[in-house]
Design brief:
By secondary structure, the chain is mainly α. Helix content is 80%, strand content 0%. The longest helix is centred in the middle third of the chain and has 39 residues. It is globular, with a radius of gyration of 22 Å.
Length: 243
Amino acid sequence: MQRFAVDPGSTDLGPVYFHPVLWICAVAVFAVIALQSIIYLRAIRKAASAADLTDEQIKSSVRRGGIAAIGPSLAVALVAISLLPLFGTPAVLTRIGLVGSAAFDVAAAGLAAQSLGAELGGPTYTQKVFAIGFAAMTLGGLVWMLTALVLTPLMAKGDKTLRKVNPAIMTVVPTAAILAAFFTLMFAETVKSGNHLLTVLVSGAVMALCLLGAKYLNKPWLREWGLGIAIFVALAAAFLATA
C-alpha cells in the first residue's frame, strides 16, 4: 500500500496516476460499454423482423459499422496516447472511453490547474492539482450526460408533435442536422491552413471514389471500408504535405 500513498503536495504522480480506485473505475466504464453493445445487438435482432431485415443484412451493417469505426478509433487512440503523460492510463481510459473530448479535457484541467497557480505537466503539477483537474474533467462529462438525459425525452416529445403535423419533416430534419454538423466541423478545419484544406479534399475525393467503385464495380466492400481508407489516405497526404 506504500506505493499508493498519497501526498497532495508531491510532484510524484505515480501513486495517483495508477491508484487502484482509478483502475476499478476504468474497468467499470468498459464493462458498461460492453454491456450496452450486447443490449443494442440483441435489440437489433429482435426488431429486425419488423424492419424486414435479414440476418445477412444485420451482419453486413454491423461489420460495416465496425470497419468504419477503425479510422476514428485510431484517431482517438492517438489522442489518448498524447494525454497519458498528463493524466495517466486509468484516467485517460475513463475519460476517452466514455464521454470525453481531448480539447475539453485539457482545457478544463488547465483552467483548474491555473486556479491553483499551477501548470499542467510543469514543476508545479502536484497530486492535488491532478486530482482537481481530473475532477473538473469528470464534472464536465457529467453535465454532458445529464444534459442528454434531460433533453432526450423533451426532443422525443417534439418529434412526436412534428410527425403529427407532417411525417415527412422528421425524415428530413435528422439528415439535415447531421449534414450541417459535419459541414460545420469540416469547414472549421479547412480555414486553419492549406494542409488542412488538402486533407479534407483528399479524404472527400477518396471517399467518393470508394462509393463509385462500390456501385459501378460491384464491390460492396469498398463501401464498407470507404471511411477507413479515406482517413488513412488523408493522414498520409497530410504527413507528406507537412514533411
